[in-house]
């Protein structure tokens, strides 16, 4: 059994497609099957967006922690340099 390959979309593409899915669902007039398929697509897109945002937060936290460490090292009067 082949594993399903994870879909790779940029944050912006996933966000824009998710907005389109929401508009289509809100407009109504879809069959139950179409609505369910759109809902499932929206869930996948929301997960992709969340993963991008969590990754960005982690990267920012790493940079901010490194920046704080660097500033502390340069302003610490007990630091050797």
Write up what this structure looks like.
With 81 residues, this protein is mostly helical. It has one domain (11-74). The protein has two helices and no strands. It has helices spanning 11-27, 32-75. Helix 1 packs antiparallel against helix 2. The protein is rod-shaped.
How would you summarize what this structure contains?
Helices cover 75% and strands 0% of the residues.
- Whole-number tally of structural domains: 1
Given the C-alpha coordinates, what overall shape results? rod-shaped
Order of helices and strands: HH
* Cα gyration radius (Å): 22 Å
Strand runs, count: 0
Number of helices: 2
- Beta-strand percentage? under 5%
Protein traits:
mainly alpha; 2 helices; 81 residues; single chain
List the SSEs and their pairings.
Layout: H1 11-27, H2 32-75
Helix pairs in contact: 1-2
């Amino acid at each position: 059994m082949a594993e399903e390959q994870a879909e790779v979309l940029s944050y912006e593409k996933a966000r824009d497609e998710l907005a389109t899915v929401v508009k289509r669902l809100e407009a109504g007039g879809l069959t139950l099957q179409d609505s369910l398929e759109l809902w499932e697509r929206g869930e996948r897109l929301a997960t992709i967006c969340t993963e991008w945002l969590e990754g960005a937060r982690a990267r920012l936290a790493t940079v901010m922690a490194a920046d704080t460490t660097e500033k502390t090292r340069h302003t610490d009067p007990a630091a050797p340099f």
